[in-house]
Design goal:
Number of helices: 35
Radius of gyration: 33 Å
Number of strands: 20
Helix content: 40-55%
Strand order of the largest sheet: 10-7-11-12-14-13
Distance between the termini: 49 Å
Bound molecules: thiamine diphosphate, magnesium ion
Shape: globular
C-alpha cells in the first residue's frame, strides 16, 4: 500500500486537530520508543477495523507466530507416542535413500526435504487427512515431490509397503519398485497427484479446489467433505505458476483449500532469500491476495521468552534478522547464537542468561513443533470464507546432524556415513531399536518397523482408522457412474453439409452443444475456454450453458438484451478461465481426473489456441498424462497457413509434433466434420466406457470454411486407426500415385488430383491421414514384435498394409511440419515425400502462405511428378512443366531460410 498517495487524496477537514495527533505520536516515540508506538498504532488499526472505518489492510505482521499461545487449540494427540512414530518414520525415510544409493551408485533420492517437513506431515496423518475407507473420496493431498521417501516410510510402517519395495526405491524398471516422486502413472494405486515439477502442484491444487466447488454448485457431487491440502516448498514459490492461482482462490472463497509451505529458507543451491525474509514476503503476497495467513515461526520453547519481551527487543531482533543469518544460526552452536542473535542487545542477552548454550541451540522452529502445527491446521480447517496458507518455518535436513542440517548442499546429500547414521540414530533415541551391532560398515543399515501389537503401531493405525484409512490411496471406484451419449449427437455430421460451408471448429461447437444437451450425459460435459470463446465462435454457448460463477451474476450484463448475452450463474457449465492457459489446463486436469479423485467421471473439452497449448503449457499436459487424465484437448485456430492474418506467434505448425511426445495422448488432425465426430465418439467410448483407458485426446480444429463432405461408405475403423482411403483414383490412368492429406491440406490434395489427371495423365488416390502418431506407434510395436520373434511369421504394420493397397509413390501434405507425416516414413511401401509448413509463420492470405510454405496445389502436383520421374514413370520434362505452370521459383523458399 502506498499510504502517502492514499492520504493525499483525502480531505483534511481540521488541520489543527491533525497536527495535535501527529505531535502526540512524535512525543510517544520520543518518550516510550518505537516498539510502544508500533503497539499503540496496531491497537488503533485493530479498533478502526472493528469499527469498520475502512482502513487499507496491512500486509505484514511481526515475525512471530500468527496464533498467540493463549489462542492455540488444545493438542488432542499422545505426544510421546506420536514422537516415537515420527522418529521411526524419519529413520526409515533416511535409510531407504541411503540403501538405494548403495544398491545403485548415484540413484539419488532426497533426505533433507522430508527431514524438514516430517512433523508437518505427521500432524496431518495423525489428525487431519481424511481417507477413503468410509466410501467417500476423502481429502485430496498434494505431497511435496521430494518428500516422497517419508511418505513411503510411513506406508511401510502401516504395512502397506514391504521392505523389498523400499529396497526398490527408484528401481522401477523390473516392476515392484517405488517411483522417485509422486507419479500416478507409475504407482496408480498409491499416488494421486504428480507434484515434482515445481509450480504445477500449487496451481493444480487451486483449480482442483475450485473444481470441487463447481461439482458442488452444479449438484453433480457433494464435495463438502474433502479438503485440498498442498504441501509446497518455499523455493518452489519462485515458479511463476506457483502463485498464479492465489487470486482466484481468494476471489472464489476456496476455504476448502489449505497450503502448507515448508519455509526451510533453502532451495537446492542455497538460501531462498539470504538477504530478505521469505516468510514475510509470502505473507504480504497472500494477505494482499486475500488469503488467511498463518505463520508458524517459533516453537513452544520461545513462548516463555516472547512473554518476557515487554519492551519488544526480541521481536525487533526477529524482525530484522535476515534469512541468511537465520540459516547460519541453524548450523552454529549455542555460544554463537548467544553472541550474535541475543548478544548485541544487553536486554536480550539478559533474557537468555538462564539458558545453557545447548538449550539455546535447541530452541526449535515452529514447523517442528507438533502443538503449533496442530493449532495452525485446526485454525485453517475452521477458517471460513477464504483459503489458508500456513508458512511453517523449519530447518532443512532437521535431525540429520551437523553435516547436513541447513547446509547449502543439504538438498543433494543422499548418503550418510556410518558415523552420521549413528548420530541420527542417537538423535532419534532409537538405541534399543537400532543397536550398535547392526550399524556396522559391512551391512546395510536396517529398517525398523514397530510390532503389530506395539502401542505405537496400534495408535497409528487407530488414528488412521478414525480418519477413514490410509493415505495416499488412488482409487478408481466409481461413485457416480456416467451414461454414454449413444450415437445420436454424432449422427448429423456423417451426412455432410451439402453446399453449405463451415469449419471443423464450427462443427465441433455444434457437437459440443449436442453433447451438453444430452439428457443424461450432458451434465458431465465441461467446456473450458481461456478467454477465446468468441474467436472460436463459441459465444453462442454463453447464454445456453452459462458461465460458472460461484456467487452468480451480481450485475446486469451490458448485452443483457441481446440473444447471445454473457450469462454467469452459480451452476453455470462453462469454465471461462480468462487469460490463463496454465489455469485452464489445471481446471481441465481436475475435470479429467475426477473419475479417480471423486469417482465421478467428467468429460472436459478444453478449447484453446493450438499455438498456446503444448508449447505454452506442455509441462502441465505432461503432468496431466502422469495423473492419468481422460478428456479432450481441442487445438483450435490450428495450422500454420489456415489461421492466416496472425503471424509468427500465432500460427501453429508443430503442436501435433509436441503432442506426439506424450505417450498417453492420442493426437488427431481431422480434415472433415464426420472425422471429428467419429474420433470424439470413439474417444468417449474408449475413455469413459467399461474399463476406460487412461489416455487423452488432442484434436486440431481449423477455422477455414468449406462444404463438409459426407462420410464415405465402408470407412470402417480407418478414421480412428489414423488412415483410410478417402477417394479412389479417377479411372483410366496407368500412371498412378497416392496423396495423403490431413486437416485443411485436403484442399490442395483434392485440386492436385484434378490437375494431375487433366494435365499429366496421372491418377491419384486420396487418403486421409488423421493420426500419424497412432500409425507410428502401431508400426513401432509391430516392428518390435518382429525383432523379438525371429523365425515366426513376420507381421506387417498397419500403415504398410494399408498403403500397399494403394499405388505409390506417396506424397503427404499437411498444414503442420513435415516431421509430422515423416513419422511413418520407415513403413511406407514405396517412395515417400512430405510437404509441410516448416519455418516461422507470418501474415498473409491462406493462399499466399500455402504458396510460401509449398503446401499448395502446385507443390503437391510437382512433388507427385517428381517422385514419378524418380521412378522413371514420367519424364523429367513433366516436372519442369509443372514448376513453370504453377509459377514456382525454385530459388526462393528453402525452409532453412524461413
Ligand atoms: C520445474 C522444476 N525445476 C527444477 C526442479 C529441480 N528441483 C527439485 S527440488 C528443488 C529445490 C526445492 O526447494 P524448495 O521448493 O524450497 O523445497 P525444499 O526441498 O526446500 O522443501 C529444485 C530446484 C524441479 N523439480 N522442477
Ligand atoms: Mg525450501
Amino acid at each position: 500500500m502506498n499510504i502517502d498517495r492514499f492520504v493525499q487524496q483525502l480531505p483534511d477537514t481540521d488541520p489543527t486537530e491533525t497536527q495535535e495527533w501527529l505531535d502526540s505520536l512524535d512525543q510517544l516515540i520520543e518518550v516510550e520508543g518505537k516498539t510502544r508506538a508500533r503497539y499503540l498504532l496496531s491497537r488503533m488499526l485493530m479498533r478502526a477495523r472493528e469499527q469498520q472505518v475502512g482502513i487499507p489492510a496491512t500486509i505484514n505482521t511481526p515475525y512471530v507466530n500468527t496464533i498467540p499461545t493463549e489462542e492455540q487449540a488444545w493438542f488432542p494427540g499422545d505426544d510421546v507416542l506420536e514422537k516415537r512414530i515420527r522418529r521411526f518414520i524419519r529413520w526409515n525415510a533416511a535409510v531407504m535413500v541411503v540403501r538405494a544409493n548403495h544398491a545403485a551408485e548415484g540413484i539419488g533420492g532426497h533426505l533433507s526435504t522430508f527431514a524438514s517437513s516430517a512433523a508437518l506431515y505427521e500432524v496431518g496423518f495423525n489428525h487431519f487427512f481424511r481417507g477413503k475407507d468410509d466410501g467417500t473420496p476423502g481429502d485430496h493431498i498434494f505431497f511435496q515431490g521430494h518428500a516422497a521417501p517419508g511418505i513411503y516410510a510411513r506406508a511401510f510402517i502401516e504395512r502397506r509397503l514391504s521392505e523389498s519395495q523400499l529396497d526398490h526405491f527408484r528401481l522401477e524398471a523390473a516392476g515392484g519398485g517405488l517411483s522417485s516422486y509422486p507419479h500416478p502413472r507409475l504407482m496408480p494405486e498409491f499416488w494421486e497427484f504428480p507434484t515434482v515439477s515445481m509450480g504445477l502442484g500449487p496451481l493444480n491444487s487451486v483449480h482442483l479446489a475450485r473444481f470441487n466447488r463447481y461439482l458442488q454448485n452444479r449438484h453433480i457431487d457433494d464435495t463438502t467433505g474433502s479438503r485440498i491440502w498442498a504441501f509446497l516448498g518455499d523455493g518452489e514459490m519462485d515458479e511463476p505458476e506457483a502463485l498464479a492461482g492465489i487470486g482466484l482462490a481468494a476471489r472464489e472463497g476456496l476455504d476448502n483449500l489449505t497450503w502448507v509451505i515448508n519455509t526451510n529458507l533453502q532451495r537446492l543451491d542455497g538460501p531462498v532469500r539470504g538477504n530478505g525474509k521469505i516468510i514475510q514476503e509470502l505473507e504480504a503476497m497472500f494477505r494482499g491476495a486475500g488469503w488467511n495467513v498463518i505463520k508458524v515461526i517459533w516453537g513452544s520453547a520461545w513462548d516463555e521468552l516472547l512473554a518476557r519481551d515487554l519492551d519488544g527487543v526480541l521481536v525487533n531482533q526477529m524482525n530484522t534478522t535476515l534469512d541468511g543469518e537465520y540459516q547460519k544460526f541453524a548450523v552454529e552452536d549455542g555460544a554463537y547464537i548467544r553472541e550474535h542473535f541475543f548478544g548485541p542487545d544487553l536486554r536480550l542477552r539478559k533474557m537468555v542468561e538462564h539458558l545453557t548454550d545447548d538449550q539455546l541451540r535447541k530452541l526449535p522452529r515452529g514447523g517442528h513443533d507438533y502443538h503449533k502445527i496442530y493449532a495452525a491446521y485446526r485454525a485453517a480447517v475452521d477458517h471460513e470464507g477464504y483459503p489458508t496458507v500456513i508458512l511453517a518455518k523449519t530447518v532443512k535436513g532437521w535431525t540429520l546432524g551437523p553435516d547436513v542440517e541447513a547446509r547449502n548442499a543439504t538438498h543433494q546429500i543422499k548418503k550418510l556415513t556410518g558415523r552420521q547414521l549413528i548420530g541420527l540414530r542417537d538423535r532419534l533415541h532409537l538405541e534399543s531399536e537400532i543397536p550398535d551391532e547392526v550399524l556396522t560398515e559391512d551391512q546395510e543399515p536396517p529398517y525398523f518397523r514397530p510390532a503389530i501389537d506395539s502401542p505405537e503401531f496400534q495408535y497409528l493405525m487407530e488414528r488412521r482408522r478414525s480418519l477413514g484409512g490410509s493415505v495416499p490411496v488412488r482409487s478408481k471406484t466409481i461413485h457416480r457412474g456416467i451414461e454414454l451419449p449413444g450415437a445420436e449427437p454424432f449422427a448429423e455430421f456423417d451426412e455432410g453439409s451439402g453446399t453449405q460451408s463451415f469449419s471443423t471448429t464450427m462443427a465441433f461447437t455444434r457437437l459440443l452443444r449436442n453433447l451438453a444437451r444430452h439428457e443424461t450425459f450432458g451434465s458431465r460435459v465441461v467446456p473450458i475456454i481461456p478467454d477465446e470463446g468468441r474467436t472460436f465462435g463459441m459465444d453462442g454457448l454463453f447464454k445456453e450453458l452459462r458461465i460458472y460463477a460461484p456467487f452468480g451474476q451480481r450485475y446486469v450484463p451490458v448485452d443483457a438484451g441481446l440473444m447471445l448475452s454473457y450469462e454467469e450463474a452459480t451452476d453455470g457449465q462453462i469454465l471461462e478461465e480468462g487469460i490463463t492457459e496454465a489455469g485452464a489446463v489445471a481446471s481441465w486436469t481436475a475435470a479429467a481426473t475426477a473419475y479417480a479423485t471423486r469417482g465421478v467421471p467428467m468429460v472436459p473439452f478444453y478449447t484453446f489456441y493450438s499455438m498456446f497449448g503444448f508449447q505454452r503449457v506442455g509441462d502441465f499436459l505432461w503432468a496431466a498424462a502422469d495423473a492419468r487424465a481422460r478428456g479432450f484437448l481441442m487445438g483450435a485456430t490450428a495450422g500454420r497457413t489456415t489461421l492466416f492474418g496472425e503471424g509468427l506467434q500465432h500460427q501453429d505448425g508443430h503442436s501435433l509434433l509436441l503432442a506426439s511426445t506424450v505417450p498417453s495422448c492420442e493426437a488427431y488432425d481431422p480434415a472433415f466434420a464426420y472425422e471429428l465426430a467419429a474420433i470424439i465418439e470413439h474417444g468417449i467410448e474408449r475413455m469413459y466406457g467399461t474399463d476406460g483407458e487412461d489416455v487423452y485426446y488432442y484434436l486440431t480444429i481449423y477455422n477455414e470454411n468449406y462444404p463438409q463432405p459426407p462420410k464415405p461408405d465402408g470407412v470402417g475403423t480407418g478414421i480412428v486407426d489414423g488412415l483410410y482411403k478417402w477417394v479412389p483414383a479417377p479411372e483410366g490412368f496407368d500412371r498412378r500415385a497416392t496423396v495423403l492429406f490431413s486437416g485443411t491440406a485436403h484442399s490442395a490434395a483434392r485440386s492436385a488430383q484434378g490437375e494431375l489427371a487433366e494435365h499429366y495423365g496421372v491418377g491419384v488416390e486420396l487418403w486421409s491421414a488423421t493420426s500419424y502418431k497412432r500409425l507410428r506407434e502401431e508400426a513401432l510395436s509391430t516392428e518390435r514384435w518382429n525383432r523379438l520373434h525371429p523365425g515366426e511369421p513376420e507381421k506387417t504394420p498397419l500403415v504398410t498394409r494399408l498403403l500397399s493397397e494403394a499405388i505409390g509413390p506417396y506424397v503427404a501434405v499437411t498444414d503442420y511440419m513435415k516431421a509430422v507425416p515423416d513419422q511413418i516414413s520407415r513403413w511406407v511401401p514405396g517412395r515417400y515425400v512430405s510437404l509441410g509448413t516448416d519455418g516461422f509463420g507470418r501474415s498473409d492470405t491462406r493462399q499466399g502462405l500455402r504458396e510460401f510454405f509449398e503446401t499448395d496445389t502446385g507443390h503437391v502436383v510437382v512433388a507427385v511428378l517428381s517422385e514419378l520421374a524418380a521412378d522413371g514413370v514420367v519424364d523429367k520434362a513433366a516436372v519442369k512443366d509443372a514448376i513453370a505452370r504453377f509459377g514456382i521459383d525454385p530459388e526462393v523458399g528453402d525452409p532453412r531460410t524461413r
